[in-house]
C-alpha cells in the first residue's frame, strides 16, 4: 500500500464511520487533492463534507476550529505546512490552548494535516520542517508518519482523538509502497499517539529519526552492518508527546546515539532528544550524542546545493561511526 | 400618558410599518418607538421601527443592564485593589448591545466575542460570582481560574468565549455557524468584534466564506469608535463597518437603544435562517472606561465627550425613563431594585474574594482531553514530573 492510499483510506473509513468528520482545504474536492490524498472523497461524500476552500488559510483554519468547538471533527488540509504559517495563530491560540484556558469546558477535536519539510527543488519558502515549532506547544499533539502502516494508524488515531493534532506528512513519501498486514487494513486499526517504533533492532548504536529520515536511517543501518556495526533504528512516529521511554531504553542498551531530522538544527527535535537522553541516561553514554539535521540555511534551489542542505545516508553513517569511535 | 394611549398613538404613527404591529398583541403589550432610523446596506427593507415589549421584559432588561453596570464598576474597584490582575476590559456604556441582542436570541443560538466579554458572559446566563471568581483567579471561576478576564466561557449556553486575539472571532464564529448548518440546526451564530478589529484580513476571509457557503451568521460590530487609543477615523479609511463588503447586507443601529438592537437582531436572525446567508450588524455604541484598566481613556478623547454621551445617550437611563413613562415602575421601585442588585453584586464579589485559589494539581490538568499516561514537566525537570491523570 502506498502512503497516499493509506491516508486516503484512513480518511474515507473515518468519514464513513462518523458523520461529524469532514474535510476542508484547497483543492481537496474537485481537483481530487493537490497530492491526490483526498481522491474520490467528494464523489463519495458530497460537497457538504468535502469542502474546497478559497486560498484563505487564516479564515478557513479559524472556521475549522470554530466548528470543532461545537463538536464537529474537521480535517483541515494545508497544501503544505509552509502555508499554515498564515493560520498559525488559530492552530496555537484558538486550538491548542483552548481546553486549558476554558478549564476543560471546550475541547477541539481537529486534525491539521499536509506535507511538511523538503520536497525536491521547491526552494526556500516551500521546504521548511515545522516539527520542532509545533512540537514545543503544550495542548497540541504532533505526529510524523513514515510508512503506510504509520499513515493509516496514526491518521485514524488523530481523527478519533478529541485534541488538536498536527499531522506532518511528507510529499516524497506519498508514492512509496510498503507491505501491510491484514491487521493494518482493518477499519478499526489505530496506532497510539505518543509511542515510537523500533523499526530495526540493534546493539551498537541508536539512530532516531522521523518521517522520510527513517528510510535514510534504515539504509544507513544496512551500510553500517557491512562494517559490523549493528544499529538500532527508532521511528519516532510522534513528536509530541515524545516517546522518551523508548529512546532512553534503547540508548541504555547501545550506549550511543545519533539523532536525525530533516529540519534546522537549532532548537530542533534532535535537540530535545539529546536533552532527554543526557538527562535520563547520562551514565549510560559512552560517546557524545551526534546530531544530523538539515543545514542551518534557507533551502537553496540548485540540485547540488539542495543535496548539501539535506541529510544524506552517508552523513548518518559517518556520525554513527564517530559515535562508535570507528572513524576520525 | 397611559400605556394604552401611547400604544394607540404608536400604532397610528407607524401604521405603515411592520410586521409585529400587525400581529395580535397581548393586552399588556407595550410598544416602544425606535427613533433613530436604521441605515441599510443591500436591503430593501429593514427592521421594525417599533418594538413590542411587555412589563416583564422591560423589568428584566433593566435589571440585566443595571447588573452589568454594577459588575463592571465593581470590577474596576477589584482591579484597583489588585485582586484582579493582568487585563480587564470593561463594558459599561455598552449594556444595550448585549442585552438587546439577547432579547432576540435563545441559548440555542451561538455567541462568540473578543476580550470585552464580562457582559456578554452575563447575557448568556453566566453569573456575576462566576465572573468575579474567574477575574480573581479562583477555582470557582467559570474557567476554574485558568482563563481570566479575557477567557470566559459557557458552552452549555452556547457561549464560546472570550478571545484575546483581535479578529479571530470572525472565522471562529463562521465555524460555529458552519456547525449549525452542518447539523441542520435552525439557529444562528453571532460573531462579535469591535471597530478596532474591523480591518483585520481574516474578517474579510470569513465574510467571503460565510457568503459563499450561505452560513447562518450574524457579524456584530460593537463600534465604540475607539480601537484602544485610536479613533476610528485614524484607523479606517472607511469608518463604517456594516457596508464594508459589497455582497453581504448590513444594518447600522443605535447601539445605545436596547430595542433598536433587539429589532435589528430579530431581523438579522430571520434573514439568516431563511437561507439568505450572513448579515452584518453595526451597533453604534460607547464605552465609558478606557480600553482596559491600564488606560484612563482620556488621552485620546475628551472628558466632555464621555460626559456628553453619559448625559444624552446612557442606555440604562433611557430604558428607565421609558419604564417610568409607561408606568412600569416608579422612581422608588427603581431605588429598591438598584439597591437589591447592588447588594447582589457586592455579595458576589465578597464571596469570590473568599473562594480558594485553584489547587496546584490544576497546573497540569486540561492540557489534553485525552491524556492518560502522558507525562509532562514543571519548571525543574528533575523535581516535577507529572503523569497526566
Automatic annotation (TrEMBL), chain A:
InterPro entries: PDHB_mito-type, THDP-binding, Transketo_C/PFOR_II, Transketolase-like_Pyr-bd, Transketolase_C. It is found in: Mitochondrion matrix. GO terms for cellular component: mitochondrial matrix; pyruvate dehydrogenase complex. It is an enzyme of class 1 (oxidoreductase). Residues 1-176 form the Transketolase-like pyrimidine-binding domain. The pyruvate dehydrogenase complex catalyzes the overall conversion of pyruvate to acetyl-CoA and CO2. The pyruvate dehydrogenase complex catalyzes the overall conversion of pyruvate to acetyl-CoA and CO(2). It contains multiple copies of three enzymatic components: pyruvate dehydrogenase (E1), dihydrolipoamide acetyltransferase (E2) and lipoamide dehydrogenase (E3). Tetramer of 2 alpha and 2 beta subunits. Keywords: Metal-binding, Mitochondrion, Oxidoreductase, Potassium, Pyruvate, Thiamine pyrophosphate, Transit peptide. It catalyses: N(6)-[(R)-lipoyl]-L-lysyl-[protein] + pyruvate + H(+) = N(6)-[(R)-S(8)-acetyldihydrolipoyl]-L-lysyl-[protein] + CO2. This is Pyruvate dehydrogenase E1 component subunit beta. NCBIfam families: PRK09212.1 (NF006667), PRK11892.1 (NF008854). It comes from Selaginella moellendorffii (Spikemoss). GO terms for molecular function: metal ion binding; pyruvate dehydrogenase (acetyl-transferring) activity.
Automatic annotation (TrEMBL), chain B:
Pfam families: E1_dh (PF00676). GO terms for molecular function: pyruvate dehydrogenase (acetyl-transferring) activity. Signal peptide: none annotated. Transmembrane segments: none annotated. Keywords: Oxidoreductase, Pyruvate, Thiamine pyrophosphate. It is an enzyme of class 1 (oxidoreductase). One of its GO terms (biological process) is pyruvate decarboxylation to acetyl-CoA. Residues 64-358 form the Dehydrogenase E1 component domain. The pyruvate dehydrogenase complex catalyzes the overall conversion of pyruvate to acetyl-CoA and CO(2). It contains multiple copies of three enzymatic components: pyruvate dehydrogenase (E1), dihydrolipoamide acetyltransferase (E2) and lipoamide dehydrogenase (E3). PANTHER family: DEHYDROGENASE E1 COMPONENT DOMAIN-CONTAINING PROTEIN, PYRUVATE DEHYDROGENASE E1 COMPONENT, ALPHA SUBUNIT BACTERIAL AND ORGANELLAR. This is Pyruvate dehydrogenase E1 component subunit alpha. It comes from Selaginella moellendorffii. The lineage of its organism: Eukaryota, Viridiplantae, Streptophyta, Embryophyta, Tracheophyta.
Amino acid at each position: 500500500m502506498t502512503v497516499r492510499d493509506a491516508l486516503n483510506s484512513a480518511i474515507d473509513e473515518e468519514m464513513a464511520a462518523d458523520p461529524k468528520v469532514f474535510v476542508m482545504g484547497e483543492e481537496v474536492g474537485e481537483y481530487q487533492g493537490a497530492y491526490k490524498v483526498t481522491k474520490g472523497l467528494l464523489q463519495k461524500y458530497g460537497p457538504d463534507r468535502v469542502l474546497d476552500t478559497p486560498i484563505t488559510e487564516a479564515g478557513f483554519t479559524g472556521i475549522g476550529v470554530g466548528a470543532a468547538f461545537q463538536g464537529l471533527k474537521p480535517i483541515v488540509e494545508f497544501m503544505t505546512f509552509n502555508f499554515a504559517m498564515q493560520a498559525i495563530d488559530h492552530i496555537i491560540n484558538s486550538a491548542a490552548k483552548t481546553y486549558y484556558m476554558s478549564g476543560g469546558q471546550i475541547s477541539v477535536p481537529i486534525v491539521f494535516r499536509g506535507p511538511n519539510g523538503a520536497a525536491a527543488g521547491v526552494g526556500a519558502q516551500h521546504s521548511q520542517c515545522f516539527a520542532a515549532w509545533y512540537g514545543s506547544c503544550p495542548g497540541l499533539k504532533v505526529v510524523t508518519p513514515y510508512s503506510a502502516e504509520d499513515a493509516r494508524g496514526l491518521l485514524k488515531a488523530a481523527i478519533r482523538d478529541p485534541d488538536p493534532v498536527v499531522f506532518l506528512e511528507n510529499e516524497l513519501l506519498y508514492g512509496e509502497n510498503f507491505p501491510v498486514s491484514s491487521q493494518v487494513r482493518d477499519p478499526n486499526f489505530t496506532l497510539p499517539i505518543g509511542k515510537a517504533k523500533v523499526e530495526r533492532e540493534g546493539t551498537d548504536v541508536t539512530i532516531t529519526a522521523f518521517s522520510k529520515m527513517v528510510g535514510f536511517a534504515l539504509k544507513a543501518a544496512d551500510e553500517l552492518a557491512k562494517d559490523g556495526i549493528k544499529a538500532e533504528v527508532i521511528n519516532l512516529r510522534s513528536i509530541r508527546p515524545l516517546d522518551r521511554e523508548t529512546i532512553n531504553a534503547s540508548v541504555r542498551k547501545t550506549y550511543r546515539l545519533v539523532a536525525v531530522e530533516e529540519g534546522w538544527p537549532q532548537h530542533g527535535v534532535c535537540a530535545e532528544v539529546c536533552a532527554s537522553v543526557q538527562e535520563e541516561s547520562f551514565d549510560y553514554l559512552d560517546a557524545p550524542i551526534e546530531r544530523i539535521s538539515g543545514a542551518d540555511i534557507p533551502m537553496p534551489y540548485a540540485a547540488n546545493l539542495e543535496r548539501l542542505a539535506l541529510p544524506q545516508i552517508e552523513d548518518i553513517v559517518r556520525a554513527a561511526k564517530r559515535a562508535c569511535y570507528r572513524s576520525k | 400618558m397611559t400605556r394604552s394611549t401611547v400604544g394607540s398613538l404608536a400604532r397610528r404613527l407607524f401604521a405603515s410599518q411592520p410586521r409585529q404591529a400587525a400581529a395580535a398583541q397581548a393586552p399588556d403589550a407595550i410598544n416602544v418607538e425606535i427613533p433613530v432610523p436604521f441605515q441599510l446596506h443591500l436591503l430593501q427593507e429593514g427592521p421594525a421601527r417599533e418594538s413590542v415589549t411587555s412589563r416583564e421584559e422591560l423589568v428584566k432588561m433593566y435589571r440585566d443592564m443595571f447588573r452589568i453596570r454594577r459588575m463592571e464598576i465593581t470590577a474596576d474597584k477589584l482591579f484597583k485593589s489588585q485582586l484582579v490582575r493582568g487585563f480587564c476590559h470593561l463594558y459599561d456604556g455598552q449594556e444595550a448591545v448585549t442585552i438587546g441582542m439577547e432579547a432576540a436570541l435563545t441559548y440555542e443560538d451561538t455567541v462568540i466575542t473578543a476580550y470585552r466579554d464580562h457582559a456578554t458572559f452575563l447575557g448568556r446566563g453566566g453569573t456575576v460570582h462566576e465572573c468575579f471568581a474567574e477575574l480573581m483567579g479562583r477555582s470557582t471561576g467559570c474557567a476554574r481560574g485558568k482563563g481570566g478576564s479575557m477567557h470566559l466561557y459557557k458552552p452549555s449556553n452556547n457561549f464560546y468565549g472570550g478571545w484575546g486575539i483581535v479578529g479571530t472571532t470572525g472565522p471562529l464564529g463562521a465555524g460555529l455557524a458552519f456547525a449549525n448548518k452542518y447539523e441542520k440546526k435552525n439557529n444562528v451564530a453571532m460573531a462579535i468584534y469591535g471597530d478596532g478589529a474591523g480591518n483585520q484580513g481574516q474578517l474579510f476571509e470569513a465574510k467571503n466564506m460565510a457568503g459563499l457557503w450561505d452560513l447562518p451568521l450574524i457579524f456584530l460590530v460593537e463600534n465604540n469608535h475607539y480601537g484602544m487609543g485610536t479613533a476610528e477615523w485614524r484607523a479606517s479609511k472607511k469608518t463604517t463597518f456594516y457596508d464594508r463588503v459589497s455582497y453581504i447586507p448590513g444594518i447600522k443601529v443605535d447601539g445605545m437603544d436596547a430595542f433598536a438592537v433587539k429589532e435589528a437582531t430579530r431581523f438579522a436572525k430571520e434573514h439568516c435562517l431563511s437561507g439568505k446567508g450572513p448579515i452584518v450588524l453595526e451597533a453604534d455604541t460607547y464605552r465609558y472606561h478606557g480600553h482596559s484598566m491600564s488606560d484612563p481613556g482620556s488621552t485620546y478623547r475628551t472628558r466632555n465627550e464621555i460626559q456628553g454621551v453619559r448625559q444624552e445617550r446612557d442606555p440604562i437611563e433611557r430604558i428607565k425613563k421609558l419604564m417610568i413613562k409607561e408606568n412600569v415602575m416608579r422612581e422608588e421601585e427603581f431605588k429598591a431594585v438598584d439597591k437589591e442588585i447592588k447588594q447582589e453584586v457586592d455579595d458576589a464579589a465578597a464571596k469570590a474574594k473568599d473562594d480558594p485559589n485553584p489547587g496546584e494539581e490544576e497546573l497540569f490538568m486540561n492540557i489534553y482531553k485525552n491524556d492518560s499516561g502522558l507525562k509532562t514537566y514543571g519548571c525543574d525537570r528533575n523535581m516535577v514530573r507529572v503523569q497526566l491523570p
